[in-house]
Amino acid sequence: MATRDPIRDHFFEANLFRSRAIMAATVCAALLLLLAGRLFFLQGIGHSHYATLSTSNRVRLMAVAPTRGLVFDRDGVLLAENLPSYRLELTPESIPDMDRTLASLHELLEFSDNDVSRLRKALRRKRPFEGIPLLDNLSDDQVARMAANRHRFPGVDIAARLSRNYPLGDLTAHVLGYVGRIDERELLDLDPNNYSGTSYVGKIGIEKQYEDLLHGSVGFQQVEVNAEGRILRVLEEMPPVPGKDIYLTLEIALQTAAREALGESSGAVVALDPLNGDVLAMISQPAFDPNPFVSGISASTYAELSRAEERPLFNRALSGQYPPGSIIKPFLGLAALETGLQPVERVQFCRGYYMLPNDERRYRDWKKHGHGVVDLRAAIAQSCDVYFYDLALRLGIDRIAPYLAAFGFGTHSGIDSTGEAEGLLPSRAWKRKMRNEPWFPGETLITGIGQGYLAATPLQLASATATLASGGVRMRPRLLASVATAPGTRDTRGAQVLSRMEIVDQAHWESILAAMQDVVHDYRGTAFSSHRDVGYRVAGKTGTAQVVAIAQDGEYDADKLARELRDHALYVAYAPVRAPRIAVAVLVEHGGSGGRVAAPVARRVMDEYLLRGTAAAEVRD
Amino acid sequence: MARLSSGYGGRDSLLRLLAHFFRIDPPLLLALLLLCATGLVALYSASGQDLDTVLRQGLRMAVAFGAMLLLAQVPSRSLRLWAPWVYAGGVALLIVVLVAGDVGKGAQRWLDLGVLRFQPSEILKIGLPLAMAWYLSERPLPPRLGRILVAVVVTAVPCVLIAYQPDLGTALLVCCSGLFALFLSGMHWRLLLGFVAIAAASTPVLWHFMHDYQRRRVLTFLNPESDPLGSGYHIIQSKIAIGSGGTYGKGWLNGTQSNLDFLPERSTDFVFAVYGEEFGFIGAVLLLLLYVFVVLRGLMFAVGAQDSFERILAGSLSLTFFFYLFVNIGMVTGLLPVVGVPLPLMSYGGTSMVTLMAGFGILMAINSHRRLLA
Q1: Using N-to-C axis directions, what is the helix angle for B26-46 and B10-21, rounded to 10°?
Q2: Distance CA A81, CA A68 (A)
Q3: Which of A16, A358, A488, B155 is 20 to 30 A (C-alpha) from B3?
């Protein structure tokens, strides 16, 4: 073809092409340098950046929840444990026909349409290789039935996990509290790292108080995942540190005895060791079964529990605040002696009522016709109100309030649990501040018999009694005895002295204690009848706390009053007197007379603690 | 002949004789074989160590080398005669595809001939350089404006047809092979710049005719992080793969990005990312050098060719090969938008492999023709 063109210059064309080819080669070289530069930018300069991205692509950190610590009583009786609970899980990618699988499962196990719709909702959200729960808390029977039919259900598995269980149920419910699912508010306060694998947290009681000890530290697994998120292998592992096992000061035998002594009555029993503040027993009746709270209590059950008239969720021992009634008398008597107001021999004539000057109002004694001439010792033993109206009036609220405060009235005892109320110790300043009113002499009068504004928790009453028993040394009540640091070794927590009272004269204390022994051992004592044949010396004091004021001309008749308006029965005691080992406070709500109703409960508790013979020891060992 | 005769005697010279007889250029063949072997090595890792895939690809390579060997025997005279017919046949088939082609992955690219399923656009990868070389070399060079305009139309027709399928990557490659031919024919600089200006001005028009997914790809290229889970995912993961390879790479089969499925299309368009992750910067540069050698060898053949037809054809094929690898590596490293251009000789897939090797066969034929005359 070239021949058709006479002016064609082959040499020129070859040169032209050569120059163009060189140009093209130059451009190619430049572009290749650009590519090499780009590679250097990615692999040289950017290497560490992209290496990090690559690692975070494939490596995922998975939290491994620690096992929660166990709770024992002081003798090693198990109070809170972790039991395996079983859950039915479906893995979509291994299930050939979801509808058919569900239908056949339904023949085997019972589940509701609700469960199915929840499953279907989760199906859309989760990845096909992730197990989706269908049923929680399978029974042993259900687990067995599933296990036998396993081959029929590919992709259906039983997953085991640990779940908190309280074997003694309602006996320890108020002390231990319970764990429950972490809610949104708690999520803000908890360490997000340490709780990344945990779904339960202590809600109240010991479980909440010692959450840090019981929870332990989270462990981690570094796993390699692919683009779908499927775990391929474990790269590195840091095992979790399990929570510590703890031993409480409680003694389950005593706890059981206290509950049995209280019977069906609603009320509270607190038993302390006066020497160190150990809480030996703490009962609040009625109680509740904490176990349903762990797996998630149904709304209706919870509503029922919280709305019930007897308030089973309410921990009366710590949170209930009651007028102490006559329980206050020995403390006021001691105050009168120690402040030098009067000698112990001072007598008062009780004619059944007391009147303030220039006042028509009669402050009545519980004994209609009076106790006659009584001294301080008889006034405590027989619980004469008139004597204490007069004593309180002369002492005055300004001396009463600080002295009672030294016994722990009106302040938190500092017990290691949750929900403790602080009671109420009224004073002139308090009334001015809260009510903006002056203090009236009549209010001092009724404070003298533990009524009026005065309010205390059963724990405070027990603690004040223990303080009396130990000569003014107030110990912080405590529930935690020791922490298991390693298998077989326990780290015992030391007792803590809250305050020591200054003793003006030991004789003053002796005479008050003698009066309190009369309460129990003298035939005229208010608790005498319930302590017949008691095998040890007891110092006690009964109390009856008014719920309603009785009209001036009215008469208290328990039979005519509605139950919730009847008096609370109270009793405090410690024993043995020479070497006190136990201080008890008993409250029986609307029980009536402290001596008749509350004192027998305390006696049974003390009997159990002090008289446990060889036979009992054999049973326990 | 003189150069060949100098080394007679022994096995070495026997190989030379064989190469000479089959019109093969041993250095180029060696480079191509090395590239293919590297491709198989990377593919073994990218496929999740699936030997079947590697064997299948090896078989395709064998077929492709057969095609190369075959075309190496065709004298350029015959090529010149076939040129217009190959082009016309290719365009006709493109029209057939548009009317009655198979739809695969949302685009009409395939023609099913019962026993054979192939993309007619592949024919144009050879057919257009042939036609351009033939047309431009008919008259003295540099070409006049009129011929240039006709050449532009010759290039544009198949490109538009391919882009309409839509297969933007192939359209771009075919288009460039035509433009390279024009450039190598020595068309005047002012005209060249004018065309570039017109092309730039027509970008908005092109945008208007683009499919949504193509527009998205361009946008994603401009800012891949804007859509990390969608279209940008490819680029981000590919950059992570290459960058995390570092200087020496993670080692063969140890690329986590590819083995754990983070890298999409890792056997095909993104195979370079697998290679870069496992063999690092050093491996990547060595691979680039191998490619450069192939391109330069082709350009050398072109410069040394006997007439303008051979020169333009060989030059256009070589530059297109370069363009191929530049677009792919540029795309995988995030320099260029994601256009579906495979890495020549390394990406998994058959059709383009055969076309490429056929092109190298033509290059070898041109080279051996020169040597025969020398």
Answers
A1: 90
A2: 8
A3: A16
Residue A207 inside a domain? The answer is no
Residue A559: give the domain boundaries. Answer: 252-289+315-620
**Is the model's pLDDT at B374 over the cut of 70?**
no
Q: Look up tokens 């302040």; give the residue.
A: A411
Q: Are residues A240 and A360 in the same domain?
A: no
For chain A, percent of residues with pLDDT exceeding 70 = 95
Domain assignment of residue B216, given as a range:
2-373
State the Cα–Cα distance between residues B68 and B49, nearest whole angstrom. 29
Per residue in B305-325, pLDDT (tens digit) is 888 899 999 999 999 999 999
How many domains does chain B divide into? 1
B306 and A CB contact within 8 Å: no
The pLDDT value recorded for residue A409 is 95
Would the CB atoms of A18 and B335 count as touching at under 8 Å?
no
Has the ipTM of the complex gone over 0.90? no
Residues A358 and A465 in one domain: yes
Q: What CATH number has the domain bearing residue A120?
A: 3.90.1310.10
Give catalytic residue positions of A: 326
Can you tell me the distance from the alpha carbon of A91 to that of A134, in angstroms, rounded to the nearest whole number?
A: 10
Closest to B289 measured CA to CA, from A20, A43, A25, A29 = A29
* A407 plus A478 within the same structural domain: yes
The model's pLDDT over A545-593, given as tens digits with 9 standing for 90+, comes to 887 666 666 666 666 667 777 889 999 999 999 999 999 999 999 888 8
pLDDT beyond 60 at A2: no
pLDDT in tens, A377-401: 999 999 999 999 999 999 999 999 9
Assign 3-state DSSP to chain B and report helix, strand, coil percentages, each to 5: 70, 5, 25
Same domain, A30 and A102: no
Does A415 reside within a domain?
yes
Would you call B42 an interface residue with chain A, using a CB distance cutoff of 8 Å? no
- Chain A residues with CB-CB distance to B246 below 8 A: 43-44, 47, 51
Least confident stretch, A64-68, A88-92, A412-416, A542-546: A88-92
The answer to whether the beta carbons of residues A502 and A265 sit under 8 Å apart is no
User: Is A30 touching B (CB cutoff 8 A)?
Assistant: no
Report the alpha-carbon distance of residue A540 to residue A519 in Å, rounded.
6
Q: With a CB-CB cutoff of 8 Å, which residues 53-92 of chain A face chain B? A: 53-55, 57-58
Picking from A542, A474, A529, the residue whose alpha carbon sits closest to that of residue A328 is A542
Which of B235, B236, B240, B274 is the best substitution to test chain A (most A C-beta atoms within 10 A)? B240
- For residues A415 and A498, membership in a common domain is answered with yes
The yes-or-no verdict on residue A512 having pLDDT over 60 is: yes
Contact B218, B232 (CB under 8 A): no
% chain A with pLDDT above 90: 53
A56 assigned to some structural domain: no
Parallel, antiparallel, or unpaired for β A568-575 and A59-64?
Answer: unpaired
**Judgement on whether residues A349 and A377 belong to the same structural domain of the protein:** yes
Q: What is the CATH number of the domain that holds A365?
A: 3.40.710.10
Q: Which of residues 183-242 of B touch A (CB under 8 A)?
A: 183-184, 186, 237, 239-242
Q: What is the residue-averaged pLDDT of chain B?
A: 84
Q: What local confidence, expressed as pLDDT, does residue B267 receive? A: 86
Q: Which amino acid is at B178?
A: G
User: Considering only CB atoms, which chain B residues are within 8 Å of A55?
Assistant: 244
Cβ–Cβ < 8 Å for B328, B342: yes
What total of structural domains would you count in chain A?
3
**8 Å CB contact between A207 and A173:** no
Residue A574 lies in a domain: yes
Distance of alpha carbon A378 from alpha carbon A367, whole angstroms: 14
Tokens 């450069």 — which residue? B292
